[in-house]
Write a structure and sequence with these properties.
Structural class: mainly alpha
Strand content: under 5%
Radius of gyration: 20 Å
CATH topology of the largest domain: Four Helix Bundle (Hemerythrin (Met), subunit A)
Number of domains: 2
Mean pLDDT: 85
Largest sheet: 3 strands, antiparallel
Number of strands: 3
Distance between the termini: 59 Å
Low-confidence stretches: 3-9, 225-234
Length: 234
């Protein structure tokens, strides 16, 4: 086999793997698979019309995103719904994100301020729910929400910290979708507006306080606990 042919085959496999990965990621986030559901490589390969090697490569990436678990001797599965799991994710976010936000406020330049304002404007103008997407937050709102929170932190200038945020966000967003019926009504608009205002005012203490409470309320809503009630087994 020539080097050109080998490269072409490798490139084709990578493209197929990317397609299967995107399909799986979107399907899990949409709730097509229930919590704890098995992800069987043979079935996925048949469904997608690709090889087992391509499916396994895609599954490993989904595991890396925190959207699936690799079970010893049992293959792959969607994470089981566990209040403890989401409390641990929430604890990580409440520990890391306020620190990164403080760095972002200290280091962010004028371009960062403009991007924060634009991201907040997009979020505020995007409907949280649309009829065709049912009880879940709309895909457009979810993406605008992610971009706003990430933009707030981008001023830190540290890509490693931002990659950590990306991973935690994906896991918490999955929990949010599964828990749509458990989350009480909140003033999301007001909370996000206060985050934007305090960050752009360069009031790091106030912004960190607003963000910490915002994350605490999210965790409490996802697991059905009050702000002051510890999770079972804590």
């Amino acid at each position: 086999m020539t080097k050109t042919a080998h490269t072409s085959i490798s490139s084709g496999k990578q493209m197929l793997s990317e397609q299967v990965y995107s399909h799986l990621r979107e399907a899990i986030m949409r709730g097509d698979y229930s919590p704890g559901a098995p992800l069987k490589p043979q079935d996925l390969a048949k469904e997608q019309g690709v090889s087992l090697a391509v499916v396994r490569e895609a599954l490993v990436r989904v595991v890396g995103d925190g959207l699936a678990d690799r079970l010893p001797n049992r293959g792959f599965a969607v994470p089981a719904f566990s209040d403890r799991r989401w409390q641990e994710i929430a604890e990580a976010r409440r520990t890391i994100e306020p620190v990164v936000l403080r760095m972002s406020i200290q280091r962010g330049d004028l371009d960062w301020e403009a991007r924060v304002r634009a991201a907040h404007h997009r979020l505020a103008r995007t409907p949280a729910y649309v009829q065709e997407e049912g009880e879940y937050y709309s895909g457009a709102w979810s993406e605008a929400h992610r971009l706003f929170h990430r933009t707030l932190l981008e001023g830190c200038g540290n890509p490693v910290l931002l990659e950590t945020f990306d991973r935690m966000w994906i896991a918490s967003e999955l929990a949010r979708r599964w828990s749509a019926h458990r989350v009480p009504a909140r003033d999301h608009v007001g909370e996000h507006r206060r985050l934007e205002e305090t960050a752009l005012a360069r009031d790091a203490d106030a912004a960190v306080e607003v963000l910490s409470r915002h994350l605490t309320m999210t965790a409490a809503g996802l697991t059905g606990h009050t702000l002051h009630e510890p999770p079972a087994g804590a």
